[in-house]
């Protein structure tokens, strides 16, 4: 579960979500739907949302819905790393004005060794450069 909080925090602190999306998820009753894909092309529906106030805190953000399914299907365990690459889908149009079409690729690595991890995801990132589909892709690393 910590991974979903870490990923949500990285996404929130990035400039990948719009002001309208940030305002939208401030309501703990609203969830921002996101498409997520693993390295095999399997699609998962994710929700980016704010958790209501917890123990006097203002609330935390998390990525939920089929995140546990992603972890299970990709056999992620303690000591593994997930790298999030965030992008916007060009179609269909946003469901709400200024909100929507956010998607991510979740790449799993069976290591936390920093040099090995850096070499692996750098090679994948470089392989994508020049691919039309990679335009607008941003990398958010979550350990």
Tell me what you see in this structure:
By secondary structure, this protein is of the alpha+beta class. It has one domain (2-142): At1g16640 B3 domain. 29% of the residues lie in helices and 29% in strands. The protein has 4 helices and 6 strands; from the N terminus they run H-H-E-E-E-H-E-E-H-E. Strands 3-2-1-5-4-6 form a 6-stranded mixed beta sheet. Strand 1 and strand 2 (43-50) form a beta hairpin. The protein is globular, with a radius of gyration of 15 Å.
Q: How does CATH name the architecture?
A: Beta Barrel
What is the CATH class? Mainly Beta
**DSSP summary, beta strand count:** 6
Shape: globular
- What is the CA-based Rg, rounded? 15 Å
Major sheet: arrangement of strands: 3-2-1-5-4-6
- Give the SSE order as H and E letters: HHEEEHEEHE
The helicity comes to 25-40%
Low-confidence regions: none
Distance between the termini: 12 Å
């Amino acid at each position: 579960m910590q991974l979903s909080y870490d990923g949500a925090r990285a996404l929130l602190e990035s400039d990948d979500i719009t002001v309208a999306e940030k305002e939208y998820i401030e309501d703990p009753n609203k969830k921002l739907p996101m498409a997520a894909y693993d390295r095999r092309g399997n699609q998962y529906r994710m929700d980016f949302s704010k958790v209501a106030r917890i123990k006097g805190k203002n609330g935390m953000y998390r990525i939920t819905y089929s995140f546990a399914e992603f972890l299970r299907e990709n056999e992620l365990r303690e000591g593994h790393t997930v790298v999030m690459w965030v992008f916007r889908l060009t179609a269909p149009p946003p469901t709400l004005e200024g909100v929507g079409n956010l998607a991510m690729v979740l790449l799993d690595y069976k290591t936390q060794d920093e040099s090995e991890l850096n070499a692996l995801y750098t090679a994948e990132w470089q392989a994508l450069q020049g691919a039309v589909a990679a335009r607008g892709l941003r990398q958010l690393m979550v350990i």
